[in-house]
């Protein structure tokens, strides 16, 4: 998906930055847009650019979740998609938090558990 998005060309500077992976530019493209009645090419592409950023950036994942809740999709699908990106945002934020310390907890596939102890030898 990232390759597709980055392979797109445009002369509009804001779009060019967003396509290049600038999360702030991708968010700016969609944040103030009203809920569409239909999903046309402009909405689809803007959301795809935001999606490409959301894989690596918790802010983009959060905005994607918010905007998905405004899309004209079946209610159940809309809720599932939005919730999945809220969870992705939280997991990404946890990964970016401070390095693990002795006695710290971390989230694993099997749930919350104590972080492995690290040796203090140097």
Order of helices and strands: HHHHHHEE
Number of separate helices: 6
Distance between the termini: 43 Å
**Spans of 5+ residues with little confidence (pLDDT < 50)?**
none
Strand content: 5-15%
Biggest pleated sheet: 2 strands, antiparallel
- The chain-level mean pLDDT equals 80
* Strand numbers in spatial order across the main sheet: 1-2
Helix content: 40-55%
Cα shape: globular
Number of strands: 2
Structural class: mainly alpha
Radius of gyration based on Cα positions: 18 Å
Would you kindly provide a written description of the structure presented here, covering whatever features stand out?
The protein has 122 residues and is mainly alpha-helical. Helices cover 55% and strands 7% of the residues. A hairpin with a 2-residue loop joins β1 and β2 (111-114). α3 runs parallel beside α5. It is globular. The N and C termini lie far apart (43 Å). The mean pLDDT is 80.
In short:
With 122 residues, the protein is mainly α.
Write the layout of secondary structure elements.
Elements: H1 2-6, H2 13-19, H3 23-30, H4 41-54, H5 58-68, H6 75-96, E1 105-108, E2 111-114
Characteristics:
122 residues, 2 strands, mainly alpha, 55% helix, two-stranded antiparallel sheet
